[in-house]
Amino acid sequence: MLSDLTLVKAILALFIVLDPLGNVPLFIALTEKMKKGKRKRTFQTATFVSLVLLLIFALLGQQILGLFGISLFAFMIAGGILLLLISMKTIVFNEKKSDTTEEVGAVPIATPLLVGPGAITTTIVLLQTYGIPVTLVSVLVNFFVIRILFRYIDRIHNFLGKIGALVMARIMAILLAAIAINLIVEGIQKAFLG
What we know:
By secondary structure, this protein is mainly alpha-helical. The chain has one domain. Helix content is 82%, strand content 0%. Helix 1 packs antiparallel against helix 6 (117-130). The longest helix has 40 residues, at 153-192. The protein is globular, with a radius of gyration of 17 Å. The two termini are 23 Å apart.
């Protein structure tokens, strides 16, 4: 039986990868010219699309891996490398693109900002490591938090300020790098050392 600590660990790992707090400045920048109603709809679209995407991987992750003949360990190593590259881009280059089209709720907010390769990798690894119940609860808890964040995003942004938001993004990227290294090491150990 899985402990409460396991569930907390899974929720936090996914939260760090989704990085909604670190992306607050970008969410604001992408929607700042929108009227209040349109902005609200944009964030609702972002929440719905990203939740559906992650639920698909939470429920069908094993089948997706099996379809392509990919082992969990290979996926952990590849996913860890990918997460490490994403975290390095955030830490070193702060590379995030802006867009002002009407579909920003789906692209780029829902994907790839929230549900990108890192979140998909993490969800499949959680699924393989902890099973469907823990993975589903992790996804649902995170999107409940994201929904609240979108509702109060202006207050959060004002509270953090520009410097605080940048610092938060860097801290999340460092934690993401640590998770990436852990995935790579664990994948190599299990693949080659049994």
